[in-house]
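Technical annex B. To support the medicinal chemistry partners, we prepared a structural model of the target in complex with pyridoxal-5'-phosphate, based solely on the information shown next.
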Amino acid sequence: MSNFILPLNKTVDNLRRDPILDFQAKIRNIDDLIQLTFGEPGFTVDDRIKAVAKVSIDHDRSHYANSQGEINLRRAAVSYFNRHFQLNLKGVNDVLVTQGVSEAINVVFMTILERGDGVIIPEPSYSPYSTSLALAGGVKVPLDTCEHNFKITPELIEKTIDNANIPVKAILINYPANPTGVTYSKEELLAIADTLKKHKIWVISDEIYAALTYSGEHTSLYKIIPEQSILLTGLSKSHAMTGYRIGFIFASSELIEKMLTVHEALAFAVSTLSQDAAFAALTVGEDVPEYALKAYRKRRDRLLKKLTELGFESVNPQGAFYVFTKIPKSFGNNGYKFAVDLANNAKVAVLPGEAFSKNAKNYIRISYASSDSDLDEALRRMTNYIEKGTKY
Ligand code: PLP
């Protein structure tokens, strides 16, 4: 508990700092560090998108935007996501534009949860989910997949619901997944959807990495069970637009209307300039994810090959831009210590697996979103450190 003269909200006061940010703070002062920690795409924003953003400034697009999202952007989103992910969005009323998927997660939790409601969050998972859940008064119902090839199955969901000692209101599924890169085939999703239908729980589907799927087609759960699903996506990863803060929620128009009230209270509207740029991303910049994906695939293959040579055992990522990998046996089984030592000695920053699941203590997550040159230099440093014990 903090020592303030007047009490704070207890939930906030007791919140643990996000483990990713906590680890970053620990290694912050190390010089010449190559960062393979962030989910920050190693591309600049496409010139065609930037040109539109510049015109918006010159045209004084400096006023409050439509709080649900500019009509032209929502129209473009319906058309783009229906075409690319075979969704059946009916129109602009099925869309809410948010400040990234980050805000979208808070909006969804605040809209659907009562204090004490349980939400299944399969782990390893993106750690900020837990903070948003706690702030909305929800309770995490853990489902650890470390012993199950990092994937959920109908059986695991059944078991988790049966064993939960609180009512389960929702499940938050993220695929392709951060941090493991695993994803699901249509058949796997159909089986999962059957179980979710049976139990009548909300399905929050975070598909922010959908455009970065390496093999096969991405299938959305929203397409399979639209009546129970809320689809979250955005432009941070697909179009390297993290700083523009653009997210989308797709759901029935009735539910979107409820969520709009929450979004208006939290943020009112997303920046008008960013929405104009987002419109460009979904129209003239439609091909951006394609060329990014080609580059990421090459980086993934290079990184996996090198890690295997160095004695790591990796989950083969089918999407996103992370490798979740077990550290070589010669380094023991403490991924946190390994990550700290690697940062200090080899000047390469990666994240400890325990930031994503308490059962992944012998893992680290390496992001290969960074530039080719950074990845090359990081691999050279890691090889020297791991094979020869040479410090940077
Ligand atoms: N969901 C997942 C799984 C992520 O990995 C991230 C960012 O790393 C986010 C959501 C947040 O994305 P945004 O930039 O849209 O807020």
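Notes passed to the chemistry partners:
The first helix runs from residue 10 to 14.
The chain has 14 helices and 13 strands.
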